[in-house]
């Protein structure tokens, strides 16, 4: 098990997190106000931009992200650190926009 440092840019918050724990679970333990909802990689509420460092997040498990987005955004409910990290909480991938589109009009 390896411990890494996770810094949240712009907040002054820093936690340690092992490569066996999700970043969200450590945030909750430390009382950090990381948003979340589903905790299974679907809703994107827990998204953070990866400013520096690497995370381990199974793309198949982090189903809310495309493969490209998974290189830039961490779903903190799924992601485990693979290096020291700098994350920007509350940054969401472009695909979240797809969830806000108006439904197609029904054919008559
Ligand atoms: S809490 Fe829903 S994707 Fe992480």
UniProtKB/TrEMBL annotation:
Superkingdom of origin organism: Archaea
InterPro entries reported for this sequence: 2Fe-2S_ferredoxin-like_sf, 2Fe-2S_ferredoxin-type, Beta-grasp_dom_sf
GO molecular function, one term: metal ion binding
Bias-annotated ranges (Acidic residues): 98-108
Alphabetized Gene3D superfamilies for the sequence: 3.10.20.30
Domain 2Fe-2S ferredoxin-type: from-to ranges: 4-93
Keyword Lipoprotein: no
Keywords: 2Fe-2S, Electron transport, Iron, Iron-sulfur, Metal-binding, Transport
Region (Disordered): 85-108
Keyword Oxidoreductase attributed: no
Cofactor(s) needed by this chain: [2Fe-2S] cluster
Transmembrane segments: none
Family: Belongs to the 2Fe2S plant-type ferredoxin family.
PANTHER family noted in UniProt: FERREDOXIN, FERREDOXIN-2, CHLOROPLASTIC
Protein name: 2Fe-2S iron-sulfur cluster binding domain-containing protein
Organism: Halomarina oriensis
């Amino acid at each position: 098990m390896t411990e890494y440092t996770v810094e949240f840019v712009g907040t002054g918050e820093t936690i340690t997190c092992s490569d066996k724990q999700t970043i969200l679970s450590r945030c909750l333990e430390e009382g950090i106000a990381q948003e979340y909802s589903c905790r299974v990689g679907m809703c994107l509420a827990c998204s953070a931009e990866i400013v520096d460092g690497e995370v381990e997040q199974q793309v198949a498990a982090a189903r809310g992200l495309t493969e490209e987005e998974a290189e830039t955004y961490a779903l903190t409910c799924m992601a485990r650190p693979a290096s020291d990290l700098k994350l920007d909480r509350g940054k969401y991938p472009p695909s979240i926009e797809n969830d806000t589109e108006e439904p197609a009009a029904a054919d008559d």
